[in-house]
Design a protein that fits this description.
This protein has 328 residues and is an alpha+beta fold. The protein has two domains: 1-40 and 215-240, no CATH class; 49-205 and 244-318, Neuraminidase. Helix content is 16%, strand content 35%. A hairpin with a 5-residue loop joins β19 (291-296) and β20 (302-306). α1 (3-25) runs antiparallel to α3. The protein is globular and about 50 Å long. It starts with a helix and ends in a 10-residue tail after the last strand.
Length: 328
């Protein structure tokens, strides 16, 4: 780090300290205003994310599991960061039952399955279509897009209503230099009929619209985290955005609800198709060491995969609550 940046950090830290002291004096007043604002955001999460109904410990081959997709009959298709292999994991047998090779090794981030075809996303925005992926006669088709490593595409979902894939970018939201979308996160559409990416974002997300409903100790931690995010932003080490999508999925019974998770900041949000944040919550550090994958079963059970950061990689299952908050 340069001496100039070190001086900036020192100055910002001193200023930030006084700002924190001043803000603490008005926290009670502001918290009341926040409560009023938060009423506008519905409580839509249908799962108890603090109590998984099942935990599946993955073998070493999936230590860097980065994406999961529901196959039915208690099976998941899994992808990992480094290998061009689709792993079929059996939730009853608790093991990998098949490995499907589809190309050269690379930084693969997510997977979806539609019919007999699998689609895999590489971090540079390249889409791999593995036609008839479970047959020996499978074929891999590669589709380049105008996304790049600068966008760091990590999330992939199937949009049945539009016969398209949704690609969530972890970092830069823009392709065109004329439209930078500062502070926002972007979801792009890949049309499965034309096999091409639409070059304008389908959805833009404003993380500043997330509700803040933490308890007091958590609120203090969030404040400190936000302060240092601002420091990184001032030094141009970050865009000041603490939400970096690592996975995306559409609820099978409510396709207007789009679920995204961010391993950075451990956050889950629900969006509508206009990009409005309908609900959001923090994820437990203990349960979600590095959440990188999300999918649903046909009946709406939720699965979230975690890389084996300082431990064993896992997939956690959450059954839909008997009486969900949206059913009351």
């Amino acid at each position: 780090m340069s001496a100039q940046n070190s001086i900036k950090i020192l100055h910002l830290t001193i200023v930030g300290f006084f700002l924190m002291v001043m803000d603490s004096c008005t926290m009670k007043e502001n918290s009341h205003q926040e409560d009023i604002l938060n009423i506008e955001i519905a409580n839509l999460i249908e799962y108890d994310l603090k109590k998984p109904d099942a935990i599946f410990k993955l073998p070493d081959k999936l230590d860097e599991v980065s994406g999961i997709a529901w196959l039915g009959k208690d099976k998941l298709a899994c992808i990992q960061d480094e290998k061009a292999i689709i792993y079929i994991y059996d939730l009853k047998k608790l093991k990998i039952i098949s490995e499907i090779h589809f190309g050269k090794d690379g930084d693969y981030e997510d997977i979806v399955v539609e019919g007999s075809n699998a689609y895999v996303l590489r971090s540079d925005g390249t889409v791999f279509e593995v036609e008839n992926f479970r047959l020996p006669t499978r074929k891999t088709h590669i589709f380049n897009t105008k996304l790049s490593l600068r966008n760091n595409a990590e999330g992939l979902a199937y949009d049945k209503e539009n016969n398209a894939l949704l690609l969530a970018c972890k970092e830069s939201p823009s392709i065109d230099k004329e439209y930078l979308y500062p502070g926002l996160r972007a979801i792009y559409t890949f049309d499965l009929k034309t096999k091409s990416l639409k070059e304008k974002p389908a959805i833009l997300i404003d993380p500043s619209k997330m509700k803040k409903n933490q308890t007091s100790p958590e609120k203090n931690k969030a404040y400190v985290s936000e302060f240092f995010t601002k420091i990184a932003h001032a030094l141009k080490l970050s865009d000041g955005n603490a939400f970096y999508p690592s996975a995306i999925a559409l609820h099978p019974n409510k396709p207007e609800q789009i679920y995204l998770i961010s391993s950075v900041g451990r956050t889950l949000i629900i969006l509508n198709r206009q990009g409005e944040i309908l609900d959001n919550t923090k994820l437990s550090k203990t349960l979600f060491t590095q959440a990188e994958g999300i999918c649903f079963s046909d009946k709406g059970d939720l699965f979230i995969s975690n890389e084996g950061k300082n431990g064993t990689a896992t997939i956690k299952k959450f059954n839909k609550l008997a009486k969900s908050k949206t059913d009351i």
